[in-house]
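Cross-posted from the bioinformatics board.
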Amino acid sequence: MVLCLSAVCLICSALLAGTYAMTKEPIDAAQVEKTNKTIAMVLPAFEGDAVASSIEVGGVSYDYYQAPGAGYAIVSTVSGFGGPLSVMVGVNSEGIVHNTKVLSHSETPGLGAKCQTDVRFLGQFQNWNPASKKLAVKKDGGDVDAITASTITSRAYTLAIANAVEVYNKIVEGGQTNE
Amino acid sequence: MSKFSLITKGFIKDNPTFVLVLGMCPTLATTTSAMNGLEMGLATMFVLILSNIFISLIAPVVPDKVRIPVYIVVIATFVTVLQLAMQAFVPDIYETLGLFIPLIVVNCIVLGRAEAFANKNSVGDSALDGIGIGLGFTLSLTVIGIVREILGSGSVFGWKFIAGDGILAFVMAPGAFLVLGYLMVLFNKFLAKK
Amino acid sequence: MEFLLIIISAIFVNNILLAQFLGICPFLGVSNKLSTATGMSGAVCFVITLATVVTYLINQYLLVPFKLEFLQTIAFILVIAALVQMVEIVLKKISPSLYQALGIFLPLITTNCAVLGVALTVVTKEFTFGGEAHMLNLGEATVYAFATSLGYGLAMILFAGLREHLALNNVPKAFRGLPIALITVSIMAMAFLGFSGIV
């Protein structure tokens, strides 16, 4: 009985170790590729590789990627309607929001989850100049058109971008990073 | 039982969802669209086939007392293999299905087939049984997914044929129970053999 | 305040049965009678809380330091299976009356995906209770697990009450049994949707 149990465990662990060794590289590669794809999506075209680092603003640590000549892609996480809402915000070298992309969310399917697909909502953030337009939904006196019936998600999304802009300003004025 | 009926029995006679009523959690949670249902079904089928083959191989030498623990270890191993493979090659799908991939371990279908079929049948038959039940499960999940997607988002497999939103409740939790309930009624009425 | 948010969120807003679809099999299986439903809820409550604490510690001090997170699934299910056995033995010895009440449900719990589901959720997912997104610490994880299992019990007992009444009614033949039960759950889930957004 003991022999049989140990034999089964041995076979299983050998199988697992083998799979782990085989899939480790593809998993890492898939993750890197995904991040790079998202960075390419939120920033203008650039040469070379984006450099990852992090910065602390207002007691919260933000991860960001510096793309040579193009600007910064900042990962900003806020509390949405159903849980954390994580957005990658691309800010170009002139301080203008180039594009945004949802990394992960737990919003209501069909309502708040539209923050990933709603062209009208997402389109307005492309080339958004935070200096001339206010980053807040219209209900709160800003310039952002909210997703119909999803004010809380829209508010959270807008806040994520506003935080990212703040992080951008900090990066630029500080000029140094803690890598 | 002929080889052919081993494969087809999962569709109606031993349909894991509508007749055996096993593995309800992924059935309800991952069928928000036809594609998700299909992917979940295939993932479960993968584990089902491998664990059936492996268990039918080792069943003669496993003492009765430690049968269940051994089966759980075997199933958990294959689920982890699946998790790693999906993370490596189809990370997007892995993310969509999320928690329900590791939860295949406790899907009663897998342990149920190991216990009811694989431990007393040949390797070949067990593999076919895995394919059959797996196909039945995939089919049920896809059908539920199609119905929910049509009603909830006005599309099938992502192809939109109604502009605008569907009836949102069908994408959310109540719709899952409702669609499964009514499909079961239809199944009982027209397909189930008395 | 933060604990209060966790409790309300886990019991009502993200009810494990009606919003997360975990542990449906026993939910449909033993909800025929109020008394068995109560017993099962008690047992689940006990095991989920205990299992979450143990798996959380194992993950924190064994799997993470050795970079073995990919073994979470297999490690957790073995721990849960062993734990359920141990609870059964210990209960039998120290509290025969409690064992009488919960005993028959304990073996069923190993394959209740709610237990593994909660154990995996608390170590892999970030939460936003009280502001910033963060991983739960041990205290929060325990409260979360306990509240989740209370939510499980609440939905189960409510549903068993409804089902006892259903059994007395004349339901069309094709609807009898599970179909009508599922449709009832659907209406309950709709009611619970009303809680969404309050936390």
